[in-house]
């Protein structure tokens, strides 16, 4: 494939932006980025458009899709009430059909929004063993790249948690080989919904398999309060005492992490999945990303299952961090695009393959029609963050193949598939 780009936002180490260039992709890999436009029957014309790397959603919950619009009676007034009154009921009601179709529908939406790589956390204890196979089937029907895991929890019992750990190891060791673009990892829901033996077992399995563990860390104050009550200290030092950070860790949220805790995370090379849109919706607070960056933590961005439009997630980050500073210039808008591309790729350990447009990386791109205004090299990243949305995505490209455009839709997904997603959601509502 040859991709002619009017403006190319590379997100390479120099954050280079180039005008009037073409990118050559062979066997899914970028082999050249050259000045000027090129012709050929395999040329894609984005000469009047902005091209960015495929977006990377480093923390999502695809099983949240069916709950949009659901007629729920719950009116939670805290994060913990939202878990108890909504999400844990949804978890228990999920079937393998729901797992497969929610994954399929979510992947279609992500591709429509320019996301080419994601990291998901699935929770459906009554679908085990085998729930991750159902999720993987839904993902693999589309051309997206995905890391998937089961969200281990001992909220009902330690035995149930161990079944979750077994599910992750089973998929890592036996299941993922059936898929080209789907891989497994490990996940602990939170510290407060698990126990020391569960944490230690998860670390042992993850380190044996050389896979990361993702955890929701200090998203709500309940995590902090329960840790102090149980262990006499806050979650980060409590987890450190358990040897948790012997594993490669992706910490989602970290909304209530103190400066001292952030220093501990940095000492252990923990990566952070920032979820600003979700933090707004759950009213949990604003993560101290400034201190995280000052300590050298790698930060990416995720939607936490709330909104597949990563452009909205980027703008949420810009808004809350400017508001926190009470300063309209208090946050560099281009930082949000960095988090949504190379930052998230680094969080997932995939920055050697995705997250920027560079020779040697995979041919993952998003082409954007941003309207009639001129696009200047020096302001292009800001223009993307401030103005783009999923409606502006003209193509999503994975490995040099156009896998989404508004006329033909997502490769591998048709109207009957989407009808099935909707029908499964309605059935779930009835069970709830």
UniProtKB/TrEMBL annotation:
Amidohydrolase-related domain residues: 50-403
Pfam families assigned: Amidohydro_1
Keyword vocabulary terms for this entry: Hydrolase
InterPro entries given in the database record: Amidohydro-rel, Metal-dep_hydrolase_composite, Metal_Hydrolase, MTA/SAH_deaminase
Keyword NADP in annotation: no
Keyword Hydrolase: yes
GO molecular function: hydrolase activity, acting on carbon-nitrogen (but not peptide) bonds
PANTHER family the UniProt entry points to: AMIDOHYDROLASE-RELATED DOMAIN-CONTAINING PROTEIN (PTHR43794:SF11), AMINOHYDROLASE SSNA-RELATED (PTHR43794)
Name of the protein: Amidohydrolase family protein
